[in-house]
Amino acid sequence: MTINYFEFYDIPESFEPDEALLKKKFYALSKQYHPDFYANEDEAKQQEILEISTINNKAYQTLSNPAKRLEYILKQHELVNEGAKPQLPADFLMEMMDLNERLMEVDDAEQLASIRAEALAVEDDLSNELKGLTADYEMLNDTAKEDRLNSIADIYYRQKYLLRIKESLNTFASRF
């Protein structure tokens, strides 16, 4: 059984949780389940406390980081998994293939800068679209949330694809 980190902290599932509340819950549980307070307990109790403490740390590391939180929510809804081959929009794929092709033929730093600027513009567009989709997420009903999560997963996979191009850009940048 996997623990739902939002339920663990008793906060609503959100792409933009109350950061102060999250930190407050983390510190309260850190104090409550600190292994040192249970040093005189039996082995089973100490192990239980250690597990809760570990979950608390993992939950906080995940939910306090926007990128990890986004991926976590999508995984919770089984929209992201290792080795998945998502169906990306054809126009996006064409744009990325064009960027990639031009990257392979780049001759100078100026061309590279132009390609980098295009990639950053696409990244900004995706980030802005993502902000719009995640802002009011927790206010939606379940059906609307499911629809919204599919759109968010689409952007997640497009960002992953773009990340590979940005990594190639960095590799090519070292040549100039």
From TrEMBL:
Keyword Methyltransferase found: no
Alphabetical list of Gene3D superfamilies matching this protein: DnaJ domain, HscB, C-terminal domain
Keywords assigned: Chaperone
One GO BP: protein complex oligomerization
The keyword Chaperone belongs to this UniProt entry's keyword annotation: yes
SUPFAM superfamilies: Chaperone J-domain, HSC20 (HSCB), C-terminal oligomerisation domain
Domain J: 4-76
Family membership noted in the UniProt record: Belongs to the HscB family.
Protein name (record): Co-chaperone protein HscB
Originating species: Mucilaginibacter galii
Gene: hscB
